[in-house]
Protein 1
Amino acid sequence: MSEYRYVGRKRRTKEDRRFITGLGRYVADVTLPGMSHVALVLSPHPAARIGAIDTAAALALPGVQAVVTGAEIARHTNPILHGLALPGVRWYPLAVGQVRYVGEWVVAVVAASRHIAEDAAELVRVDYEPMAWVGDPEAALAPGAPLVHPDHGSNLFYRRTFVWGDVAGDFAKAHHRLASKVYWGRSATVPIETFGVVANWNRGNDLLDVWASIQMPKYPDQMAHCLRLPLNAIRVHYDVDVGGSYGVKRGIKHSVLVGYLARKLLMPVRLIEDRLENMVGGDMHGPDRRFDVTLAFDADGLIRSMKMRALDDIGCYPGRSPLQLAKPVGAIVGPYRIQSVEYEAVAVATNKTSQVAVRGFGQAPTNYAIETAIDRVAAHLGMDRLAVRRRNFIQSHEFPYRIPSGTDYDSGDYDAVLTKTVARAKLEALIARRDALRAEGRLAGIGFATCLEPSGGNGAFEPLFNPANDTTTWMESCQVKVDALGGVTATIATSTAGQGHQTLVATVTGEELGFDPDCIRVVHADSLQALPGNSPVASRMAIMLGGAAAGAARQIKERVLAIAAHNLQRPVDRLVYREGAVFDLDNELRTLNWAELVRIAHRKYHQMPPGMEPGLQASYVWEVPKGGTMPTADGRVQMYPCYSFECHIALVEIDRGTGQVAIRDWFMGHDCGTVINPDIVHGMSYGGIAHGIGAALYEEFAYDENGQLVAGSFVDYLLPSVHEIPEIALVDHCTPSPLTPMGQKGSGESGYLGAPAAVASAVNDALSPLGITIDRLPMHPSRIEQALADKRADMGEREGP
Amino acid sequence: MNRQAVRLTVNGKPWHGEVPTRLTLVDCLREEVGLTGTHVGCEHGVCGACSVLLDGEPVRSCLMFAVQADGRAITTVEGLAAPDGALSPLQDAFWECHALQCGYCTPGMLIAAHALIARNPAPSDGDIREALAGNLCRCTGYQQIVDAVRLARRRMGEVPP
Ligand code: FES
Ligand code: FES
């Protein structure tokens, strides 16, 4: 039985009620009197010099307030910051001088309604002089390739080879070496709500008010930098409900543009992307990666060493993307005891829309590459795929476990979680089912994946890839205030995109104070009121916001105990706090209840301990556990603090005619330490698996030979519906983290980090009797169908007429 | 710009106004009627976030013009609870099962589920999945949504003692 009263119990969330009644408040629901609307003119070319821009017809349309070009923006704003120092790469909300991808924003039109703005956008005439462009990252690296940013002089944005441990020695010792190549196609999280932002320049106070559908660390800081404003001249309202993000809702160029327009026009301005603007030019695509992985291993399946090369097509502006190659350094060996690693990370610019953070920040593709390589070792040795994994698992007694790249994993019991999941899946019976299907001539396969979810997010990847960046502080904060009538209100410094932060903070605060979480109010500060924080990225809020809330609540308890000690004339260590009241351990009748304590704090200064601040409030700012260290010269670093584990077992069947993959069964074992709210954690896992199935089978931002995005709508970019997602069985396990107040770890990326690998494993198992391997995600039905057809043709040829 | 008079009954209350002929029903509901519970996800008829009941039938309000709904009765998510604010059994089951995260698809999901229960009070699991298949959710993987509809089905089937 859990030691907790509220933590880990099934409880209704605090947020859901407003959403089921239609009372959420998203950015598109924010309307201000006299608000104007933005529409955009998009580049039709993958690369072209911008000549004359004729805005006269657009400006003449009644209701149009302004037509703004990149040249104007560049005069009045600073380029958007990106993670690397890249001379000559200047990123502005609107293209300046040349366009670099199809969909890039060229001109912004502001009008009294979105309809008028769109009409006017169609009247803008832009002269383009098409330039040579490059869409393939390998071609972009070739000498003489067209340059995406001519002023930078190269399409190579980042390359470094890290060597951790004795790779050469371990490779020499190993009995076998096996190379594999896999490709992770370009997809993203694609929330159902597009990005939107509303800004208003408050002239009376010289203050820019911003409402945005945002999930981004240091968002106000970046706006201040770009708009050349003091940080305290920007007020971001974090109480806007965000309609899904899972990493991508960065919208920095949107926000700089709208902030600039609001200040220029002295009127509220709003930009809500339509779906096409979002897909082609929202700068929200995810990793697009080619991996070469070579494992060195022994005949018994022991993996000694790994070489991995990851080449990422990051599109046109760096944004957060090269850094998505850095974060996986903290879990570069997955759950395995691999002793040495060589990792070459290469980020290449091409004429495509930019990448942004996607759920897991690069870890899901890396996990897919590792897991595929492990499956191939098993096939090579004729070993069971799970046996190879178990042979290499870090064991529960080995934690904290330092991996070759310098990160300590906090805790885990991978073997136990896998064993539990195998039992729940009745793996023997599942295999029998697969084999029975095969006996009927069907293509059936079982997939496995055993992966880690790094959580608790610090930004250690930034100094790792950019020595000029020495940020090691990744705090989160919470204020808890007890009002004069004893009510408790917690204030948090972030917006929420479905993660349930109000429930999280109420549950943790309630647990600490012994109050029903339903009675605790949780509000979102705006960025000027807020204590410092880093937003809900990197599966960090259960850890960091939960930790901050616990810290603040504990301070409240300490204060209450001090007040009681003073009034009961007893030493603090002879007193105990229970559900708001303080009891004397030596005399249970001597007690002060919550109302009395609160009244003393708020009203009776004469009864307060000398020197104590009046009222009853606390703030807690918590640095990420194990944070505060810089990488070593050879690139070893403590990446995220906490490591959740997930293992997937999936049964799939492939239609021989169409190549359609039907998922028959799915089991996921999950250990994210102490769970605060089980429904929330389970929901994220289900959603993560569904997203992973999408990335593995359907979703792709494909570009054609003319550099045009061919998936600009939900008709060509296929999000899985309820038909494609099976009933999923989750198997919970808890290995508490020693680093967090309640033993919690992160779970916001769960499911997604292993599901694509598991799908690939299952599809390849299904195709293995035919000798077909597919090494490219997404495994579109058409791709599988093609492989099957090729095989048939091949067999036909060999058998002869 | 052409404008035209429109009369609607929205959640049981009459509404009339003069709107641009090209105004979609969803924009009309959100901007003119002032009910922002109905959401816009794609504006091309795929995601279902904009679903409303039109004379009891679920429709995508991004795919029709407000003027086409003239004289019709519309139910939006704001109209699903009882007039006294009591949640509908489906709304309550959505809350109980945490059938949502960000809540953006939720109004459309609830509309689809209400339409299902209205025409088939005892749907099979297959019926439930079929009824929700036109609505995309990116947060939940659908499982807790399906669970919620099942729970509501069970509760509504229970005969009060
Ligand atoms: S907004 Fe109507 S179906 Fe997507
Ligand atoms: S709850 Fe977020 S899209 Fe469904």
Protein 2
Amino acid sequence: MTATPPLPYPNADAPSQDLIAACVHCGFCLPTCPTYAVLGVEMDSPRGRIRLMKTVWEHRLGADAPGLEDHISKCLDCRACETACPSGVEYGKLVEGARSQIVVARPRSPIERLIRAAAFEWLLPHRRALGTFATLSIAAKRLGMGSLLRATRLGVARRMADLLDLLPAHSTATRSATISARGTRRARVAMLEGCVMGSVFGETNAATARVLARNGVEVIATVDQTCCGALHAHAGERELARDLARRNIAAFEQVTADAVIVNAAGCGAAMKEYGWLLKDDPAWSARASAFAAKVKDATEFLGDLGMSERPGTLHARVTWDDPCHLLHGQKIRDQPRALLSAIPGLEVVPLAEADWCCGSAGTYNVTQPDLARSILERKVANIVRTGADTVVTANPGCLMQIQSGLRQAGHKVRVVHLMDLLDEAYRTG
Amino acid sequence: MRGLVALLGREKVLGAREDLLLYEYDGAVDTATPDAVVLPESTADVAALARFCHEHRVPIVPRGAGTGLSGGAIPVEGGVVVSFARMARILEIDVPNLRAVVQPGLINLHLSTAVAPHGLYFVPDPSSQKACTLGGNVAENSGGPHTLAYGVTTNHVTGIEIVLSDGTVLRLGGKAVEDEGYDLVGAFVGSEGTLGLVTEITVKLTPLPEDKRTVMAAFPTMDEASETVSAIIAAGIVPSAIEMMDQLATQAVEASVHAGYPLDAGGILLLEVDGPRDGLDDARARIEKICRDHLASEVRVASGALERERLWAGRKGAFAAMGRLSPDYYVQDGVIPRTRLPDILRLVKDAGVRHRLRVANVFHAGDGNLHPLILFDSRLGPDELERAKAAGLEILTACVEAGGSITGEHGVGMEKNCYMPLQFQPSDLAAMRRLKDAFDPDGLMNPGKIFPTPSRCREFAFASTAR
Ligand SMILES: Cc1cc2nc3c(=O)[nH]c(=O)nc-3n(C[C@H](O)[C@H](O)[C@H](O)COP(=O)(O)OP(=O)(O)OC[C@H]3O[C@@H](n4cnc5c(N)ncnc54)[C@H](O)[C@@H]3O)c2cc1C
Ligand code: SF4
Ligand code: SF4
């Protein structure tokens, strides 16, 4: 009698074998993968990464293999490969599953553990802490810490400087209260305030609420909501992500709303997957799926609802850059484009490779600085080629990333969230 | 390994186990792990590598994007896999002469996209054109839906630069169409990486047609669809493409693109006519009428570029969408005289039933180039693939008996090399072998492909008179 071999992956969050089986290794996804475009090797392609996960299931590679961690962490989780895949392989779920296993299987240095704990357990879930951190970082940036750090010529310090570069020069943390609809009420929604959104982009939250209100949508206040857990899930910290998801589900269950509006594409994509995240938790899985079905990106919701009030005229040459987690993560393509072209006076020019990642992807700048830089440079070059004076997008990570890329390359192009631009248009009108 | 690194540098050589494991597959079913992978960036790199392999008697296996469907890029006898992923530049676009000079790792579609602003395109359009490389197209002499009217890769390549297995660099042909002496370019196109490594390709560019009409027609069964194909051609209409899909294939396709392919049809045709705008609508109307005369339940003309692209995205993504139906598929590529379509399709169906496997069909009906996709699940054990191969062999035998061939465009590779005697006499194979020896006397280029090998083909002792 042969003993059944031990499970090759540490726990049940392992990348699903059924999802892996849907990949017929046709290679259609390769040309859409930003890391494959830079490195040109199978290991850093979607097909290769899926195969790596499969070889672990086949006991041909350990879940602790250094190569596995290397190539899985080089993945941006941008999900362009999902859009490209005719077989509908759900790559995002796979890569997050793989990461959750690597976190367990690969021992980390004490320093790395400390940094992860600080970021994932302390900073992100606690908005006030994050707010303070953001304020401090922005202060550091204003004091010119960036150039100081760069001057030290230390790798770590340089990456910190790059990170500081990402932050906007001001933070505008504001908490939203209930905002009633203008005119006849067409819908009632709750809004995710988000950790980064709330701390650094509070003004965008306020703008989103105003734009919705203008279109007959009541935006009700909520209590106790927290970080969506997207960054945790991307980093493989699934237990922490689940805790946050449960807290959010409970918080939003307390209000009656037609939809839960999210204006950060990365958060929205993660929240739409709460059902999958909590699928093995019998007490929560049904609640999670019900909640996930209510989650709508702000552009998706307004685009589908239709604008009831025409925005005022703005004069600018603008171009739209799809946030990966909006286009590839949530398959939302038409609505933001429709909203943008509804603003009179704008000259909207197409952006080549608008569907390519800008390299933002959470902590990617810190973990993969060289790759992140090449990917960002490609995006910046495409933007500059359009001759647009304004880039419009819908995710804080992309906003900061593109802004810093343009600034470093010395271009004066404005980067703005679609909701902020709409708000601006309504104010002029 | 160490020698290769010393020769080419660390960045261009892969040797870690997890790296090599990812160069053991392509788009098909066979696998084998290489001893090393090299990623050259220039012809000089390729020549240096070839000299090294020649000196150490190591097999060389070229690889493009690994979308091949006959195991061509699989290092079945070990050795070095040479990936052309980093030689993907367009070197020259010569608009007046309608030529482009490109590196072999360039993706097929990227060429057409790049020359589109000049009103030009590269004609061969394999369904995998979003991903496959020109080097792979040259090696496989690839076709596509529009092969029907415009020919296969060999009709669109006028020159190549190749590196032989001893490191010699040769330039064959050029921008001109005719050349004195033997047509070595023609001999090389379709040689599946067994004669040498392609490092540069000169291709013909073609003016984009002024306009197109795309028609989707749904039929109760594959029989009516097949008869329609013959009737259209008999009527003297020359569509640029006639593609056929059965109900199972349509399920996968529709789930992936939502193009409005009817799920209840037994057979579907996708037809296109293109060229000068004058006369297109006339041809379209005649096609529509023939379809209706053959009991088409629905005939839809694409209303614009968007709808046309949707329909084509569905057809071209069909193989790649099979993951929606089954974890694995084994695709055959037999060619038959078009008039035999109905009975051979029935035979395909029976072969599936006999081996307890589902078969989806989506193929170039105008060329009589079948693509039965035999669905199986390797997780259930090795028996699944064996049954799929048995069914495949029955289908191929029938194709040859019907006066056709075992491969239309996917190549022989390591997947059908044992079946070559089905179609060729020993003297044919010996002549091919002499050509191979002239280019690659030491047998280092992509060994174990095209020609039957004693070790792997022992069980296939076909009567070589099967022709
Ligand atoms: C979903 C799908 C649909 C397909 N549809 C079609 C179709 O419609 N028509 C069609 O003809 N094919 C089709 N194919 C098959 C395949 O895409 C083609 O054979 C293609 O030309 C292979 O290109 P590649 O770059 O992937 O080559 P690979 O698979 O990497 O290699 C194929 C062969 O080319 C050789 N080769 C590659 N580069 C070089 C080089 N530089 N020098 C010398 N030899 C080289 C390799 O050794 C190997 O023998 C399809 C495949 C898939 C997965
Ligand atoms: S496109 Fe889909 S099926 Fe094809 S290799 Fe990529 S993930 Fe696999
Ligand atoms: S998610 Fe993005 S980076 Fe990762 S494999 Fe897919 S396309 Fe590549």
